[in-house]
Specification:
With 135 residues, this protein is mainly β. It has one helix and eight strands. The N and C termini lie far apart (38 Å). It binds zinc ion (ZN). The site of zinc ion (ZN) has 8 residues, from loops.
């Protein structure tokens, strides 16, 4: 069994501001980030699809003490976004001063761009991370 969409392919697309996922011809669900099987019905015969990158914030947190390797980024906002196509993905929100983040963020519409970071001591070179801005 092999991955239809590997993390390497997903990451490479993200570096070009493209969000890729997998759609399920059996039940219609979209899976993102990529997994081996459909997040809804566990089917394996998935098709690679490009997602809009648009969605709404379902929850968030502000990181003030960053993990090792990301200290210089703190403080920053991490959001969980429900994409228009259904899946929920995590990313950073860059449109707002982290000291101003409050519960009014929940439900706000956002769209994806990507940010490329130099990578930390644990990563294999530059890493793209989903980054959101207000739509
Ligand atoms: Zn399915």
């Amino acid at each position: 069994m092999e991955y239809k969409l590997s993390f390497r392919q997903y990451h490479k697309a993200l570096m070009k501001n493209k969000l890729m996922g997998l759609s399920c011809p059996r039940c219609g669900a979209v899976t993102c980030p990529p997994q081996m099987s459909c997040r809804s019905c566990t089917a394996y015969d998935l098709e690679i699809t490009e997602l809009s990158g648009r969605g709404k914030i379902t929850t968030f947190t502000t990181i003030t003490v960053a993990p090792e390797g990301r200290e210089s980024e703190a403080p920053y906002i991490v959001v969980l976004v429900e994409l228009e196509e259904g899946p929920w993905i995590m990313g950073n929100l860059y449109d707002l001063d982290p000291s101003r983040a409050d519960l009014s963020l929940i439900g706000k519409q956002v769209e994806l761009g990507c940010r490329v970071f130099p990578g930390d001591r644990y990563s294999d070179g530059p890493m793209a991370r989903p980054a959101f801005r207000f739509a």
